[in-house]
Amino acid sequence: MPELPEVEALALDLRGRLRDRAITKVHLAAFSALKTYDPPISALDGTLVDDVTRHGKFLDISASGLHLVMHLARAGWVRWRDEVPTLPPKPSTKSPMAARIVLDTPDGQEAPSGLDVTEAGTRKSLAIYVVKDPREVEGIARLGPDPLDPAFTIDVLRRILADAGRAQVKGVLRHQGTIAGIGNAYSDELLHAARMSPFKPASSLSETEVETLYAAIGDVLGAALARASGKPAADLKGEKKANLAVHGRTGETCPVCGDTVREVSFADSSLQYCATCQTGGRPLADRRMSRLLK
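Structure tokens predicted for Fpg/Nei family DNA glycosylase:
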């Protein structure tokens, strides 16, 4: 799933490509992806792109007073095309295509350029909104503070953890209404950097642990954003995967201590961690496997 660093870098890349370009047409290939009806998606035809920004993990293309907002969910992405086909994409349950944004035709080019919005897999969660104000999107209106905003101070984190009570710290970090932009991958990564168990109760952190976690949030997300910034959209997924220390690396060697990276599985997701670095050498119970063994 694209998270804060990738969506921020994607917005930066698209800003350079789209700003001051006209949107001539938006073709929907997956009609279920469009979550709004007023304004209609056709209202974007002929608008001029003013900016491309990010709200948490939401991508926001603002054009002539309207906002084309996208949440890419687990398997969505945006692909730049120097030339788009003449025929619009056909709706198909077997195709990853969700929408195509057609731009004006650049000077010296015979065909228009544009963006393909795609979603891999059969579980379709990608969402597209056309609104006059991004806060009309419920997910954006509910977002917590952005962890890379200067206003996200250690006092803000301290209050979030205290308010979360006995909730597990990984879940607190992932909850978009608490902190915006951190998902499954980077919560694993920054907890590994902080040498902290993902199951640790949020309100139980000592002052030193709060300081360590706050530093890890800034360091891990800041480094990921620095690596991703300036890269084209096509390279961002590979950049993220290549630099993860534990997430998605079950069975591999921890780059810090050399122990084996372990996994805890849930119904529709999993987390990865290093027992030596994070839990004093004690493996965490894999609750799904425990249920199967009963």
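Confidence is low (pLDDT under 50) at residues 289-294.
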